[in-house]
Design brief:
alpha/beta, twelve-stranded mixed beta sheet, 41% helix, globular
Length: 342
């Protein structure tokens, strides 16, 4: 294993869900060792639970701190926080205490990343409700990450499938509130975030499509004029600044164009405008990225799948894609930082 590879931490997800199982399957496959130096951050007992669920055996070594871990190596290093005893939680249902400890584990990983000891974080599925009820009072993990990394400025969720990626002007807010939040400033920030993040993910010159808000682009103001007043002028301003973007494009055709390969990314106005398309096309393969922060965060786009917990049939495909993307983005960030320092 090359010591020049980025160090990516893997969090095993909420212990009540399928995270431990798909993590064990991913690690046992050993297919990602050439993409990053993998280190599991969590509780070794949770990893053992995942191995039992998955029916796999995994060679790993336990450490009390990340500074003890050395590369190259053939087994999996586990920084054992000894903070989650799987026997204490009912599986297949939401647990506030498990949510609290999931948040604690993520905070530990963020602290390691801010200290320069992790280049990226990939986490198996968690439960937003459990996080919130467990004391992490945020609408979603992205807001939590922004707070814990002391971020200021625009950031957002990026959803990735093989065919294209999506970005949001507004995210986890009520639809009535989202409409009022669609401003030239937020649209410009979302387009910039999409451009910069796709470049970091390997697209040298990203092609972006910007969605309309109203049906049929508002039919020239017949039912809604946000396209005329807000969206189109912003897209034209961004294009004049050198960003390759088109829009507004009506929601009922924008994803067909992206699916045909005309665009690398779609900037949507609100959450479900793009989530329905990406989950329909790649539910077990999609990846969610927290874009715009100083730390790389990726996770499968699917959830904890309580209905199949412990049955050994959870698909690790999306987690594999998430880890691969985390490794790629972390490597690109390392290269950029090295270039800036030279």
């Amino acid at each position: 294993m090359k010591t020049s590879l980025p160090v990516v931490g893997l969090m095993l997800g909420d212990v009540t869900g399928i995270g431990p199982e798909i993590s064990a399957k991913l690690l046992a496959a050993g297919a990602l060792q050439d993409k990053a130096r993998i280190v599991v951050i969590g509780d070794a007992r949770v990893l053992e639970l995942g191995m039992r669920d998955a029916g796999v055996h995994l060679q790993y070594t336990v450490y009390s701190g990340i500074d003890e871990v050395k590369w190259p190596r053939s087994d999996v290093p586990v920084v054992d926080l000894k903070n989650i005893d799987p026997a204490q939680y009912r599986r297949g249902e939401m647990s506030p205490e498990s949510g609290r400890l999931t948040g604690d584990t993520l905070k530990t990983m963020i602290d390691l990343a801010l200290a320069g000891k992790l280049d990226g974080i990939c986490f198996a599925p968690l439960n937003k409700g459990a996080l919130h009820k467990g004391g992490w009072k945020f609408h979603d993990e992205h807001q939590m990450f922004a707070k814990l990394t002391d971020h200021s400025g625009f950031f957002g969720e990026m959803n990735v499938i093989k065919e294209f990626s999506t970005f949001r002007v507004t995210s986890h807010v009520a639809l009535r509130e989202a409409v009022n939040m669609i401003t030239p400033e937020r649209i410009a920030c979302a387009i910039t975030l999409a451009h910069d993040t796709l470049r970091a993910a390997g697209h040298a010159a990203p092609r972006l499509a910007v969605a309309a808000l109203n049906p049929h682009n508002g039919e020239n103001g017949l039912f809604g004029d946000e396209e005329i007043r807000i969206i189109r002028p912003t897209v034209e301003k961004m294009r004049a600044a050198g960003v390759n973007c088109d829009g507004p494009i009506s929601s009922d055709v924008i994803f067909l164009k992206a699916l045909r390969g005309e665009y690398d990314g779609v900037v949507m106005m609100y959450h479900d405008q793009g989530q329905i398309a990406t989950k329909l096309l790649g539910f077990n393969k999609g990846v969610t990225v927290t874009a715009g922060l100083k730390t790389v965060f990726t996770t499968p786009a699917h959830g904890t799948a309580y209905d199949i917990v412990g049955q050994g049939k959870a698909d690790p495909g999306a987690l594999a894609h998430a880890f691969t993307l985390a490794a790629r983005m972390a490597a690109a960030r390392r290269a950029s930082q090295a270039g800036a320092a030279a």
